[in-house]
Amino acid sequence: MNNTMIKKRRKLLLMIGFVMLVIGVGYGYQVYTSATNTLEKMHEPIKRDTTIRKEAISVQEKDPFSVLLLGVDERPNDVGRSDTMIVVTVNPEDNSMKMLSIPRDTYVSIFGRGEKDKINHSYAFGGVEMAVNTVESFLGIPIDYYVKVNMEGFKDVIDALDGVTVENDMELTHGKYHFPKGQIELTGNEALVFSRIRYEDPRGDFGRQIRQKQIIEAIINKAANISTLWKYSDLFEAFGDNVKTNFTFSEIVELQKAYSDVRKNIEQLRFEGRDGGFIGDYWYYFADSEEVQTLSNILKEHLDLHTYNESVGL
Q1: pLDDT of residue 32
Q2: The model's pTM
Q3: How far is 195 from 209, CA to CA, in rounded Å?
């Protein structure tokens, strides 16, 4: 190979390298722009007036924090109800997370209304703010952030992730859908059905809570996989259309960068009591005050707060 051919080959390789660099930079910029636009669309602050959290917390400073996950069933001409309410606490120091599902029929004092009702009605009465305040009062812990997911659009997020895999602990059938016991792969629509099954499960709403937390864990783990960025357009669109949160852009970036190990250490908490009954025509779940107290103290400790010794907001 003569010098002329060698020079031409080097020029060609340099041109290819330059084009690839431009494409890479352009792709990275497009991903960043799409992510920024999506997070701005998702960001929805709420007004808070809490006396439980005395000092502001900082994700950047790795302070422990709490999140209320709201799965809201919003349909045309309906204000919607938060059929899924899960409290998540995160402690960066020991890289751990705790998740507690609150039964949707729990009989509690609705914050700001001076009456008792099912806890999931708090969202219908006063939106995210009333739901957050009611849960905060019920458990006696500060709720620092919220993430609201439209359950109908929830399937779009899972489809954008090419489905999720969960370990099903009980064989279940709902209409044309059959979910065998063991590891199963779910599409978005299948996951939505799987997370909503209630009457076919002898555990009722408690079994449904288990499945909902499994789906959330699966989404967190799948979304953390960098390979999903190749489908960023569908994923960002699904999140932007169906998720609202008061996390800021910088906080979400910090969570993705510094909190990746937390998802590997998740402890599931739940209400063990099964007391319930009718008041008039409606059935309610009556949480045991001692159990609420115990769960409150567990979450308080995880948030590095002093033990909560006052009466809980039942």
Answers
A1: 52
A2: 0.78
A3: 8
Distance CA 43, CA 244 (A): 6
> Which pLDDT tens digit goes with each residue over 269-287?
989 887 888 898 989 999 9
For 105-133, what is each residue's pLDDT tens digit? 999 999 989 899 999 999 999 999 999 99
pLDDT over 70 (residue 233): no
Give the bridge partners for 70, in sequence order: 85, 148
More confident residue, 75 or 42: 42
Are the C-beta atoms of 48 and 130 separated by less than 8 Å? no
Can you tell me the distance from the alpha carbon of 12 to that of 171, in angstroms, rounded to the nearest whole number? 60
d(CA 26, CA 167): 39
- DSSP states of the chain: --HHHHHHHHHHHHHHHHHHHHHHHHHHHHHHHHHHHHHHHHB-------SS--S---TTTT--EEEEEEEEE--TT---EEEEEEEEEEETTTTEEEEEEPPTTBEEEETTTTEEEETTHHHHHHHHHHHHHHHHHHHTS---EEEEEEHHHHHHHHHHTT-EEEEESS-EEETTEEE-SEEEEE-HHHHHHHHH--TTSTTTHHHHHHHHHHHHHHHHHHHTSGGGGGGHHHHHHHHHHHEEES--HHHHHHHHHH-TTGGGSEEEE------EEEETTEEEE---HHHHHHHHHHHHHHTT-----SPP--
